[in-house]
Design a protein that fits this description.
DNA-binding; homodimer; 3 strands; mainly alpha
Chain lengths: ~140, ~140
DNA sequence: GGCATGTATATGTAAAACGCACATAGAGTA
DNA sequence: TACTCTATGTGCGTTTTACATATACATGCC
């Protein structure tokens, strides 16, 4: 949130709230692994596929750095491909360790989905207390 | 993932995968705001409530620092409370800006929930390609 | 009194993740 | 030649977060 906007009292209503990014850390990793489980691919193509999972405005640097890191961890492997027309590509494929890692992510995400449902049950289900009730509770 | 474990080929199967944290960045913020929307509270109590939303092993430092940051941003406000027995508490309440912020978070989370459903549709719904098919696809 | 325990808040530091800007280069085409 | 599209990468600073540590009040117990 920007300071100049919150001063008014009501707060900002525009679309620009700072730090609201409703996806987990390293979300790119499971997305890449899921893509690679379907078919082998390379950075530039994976970037387009990632757009469908919340990475509409993806920075190339982030993707390529992530891929290198993943390879270092052994969850993907790559071969340098120079045969096709255009610039050379680094073709990636998922490893067995990568599949295990993806499974682990899936379990973790499933758990988190339940937590989010909890959140929404409280958020939508129970309306916030009226001013009077809140004031009493405050004195409590 | 640890290197020594991924060398075998199959990869680790234990519970210790590095960097898998399936909750969104700043998840603590909407959790606190939701709690404060119900009733005013203070750090120590908020910590216990956050446990129900994926913060079972919460570090106090993280929470208190987050609360201060949130106050600086104007989405919560606090008063120093010395009346009760025990150490003094900093009582927090949500502001109007905070409610707007929470609403924004909720929309963002809803969006992300759909993305996760997409993920699971691909993950569970469509089984991974068999080895033969993958090999063909690899050669393209 | 002295001491342990539970409650309550806070800082210091360092690593990891991430966004943004920028760099490099092959291939086709006008 | 110059321009564009494809393709891969590095440098750098900010933010987020985990972990360790510090402080202090209140209560009960010996």
């Amino acid at each position: 949130m920007n300071n100049e906007e919150s001063k008014g009292g009501v707060g900002p209503r525009g679309a620009e709230f700072r730090g609201v990014e409703a996806r987990p850390r390293n979300w790119l990793v499971p997305v890449i692994l899921l893509s690679l489980r379907e078919w082998n691919s390379y950075g530039y193509e994976l970037m387009e596929r990632a757009a469908a999972f919340g990475f509409e405005a993806m920075n190339p640097g982030t993707l390529y750095r992530t891929l290198r890191q993943m390879e270092k961890e052994g969850i993907v492997e790559s071969t340098w491909e120079t045969s096709k027309g255009g610039p050379a590509r680094r073709m990636y494929s998922i490893t067995d360790a990568g599949r295990a890692y993806l499974d682990f992510w899936a379990k973790s995400l499933e758990q988190y989905q339940k937590t989010m449902e909890n959140f929404f049950r409280l958020y939508t289900g129970r309306p916030p207390l009226a001013d009077e009730e809140r004031k009493e509770r405050k004195g409590e």
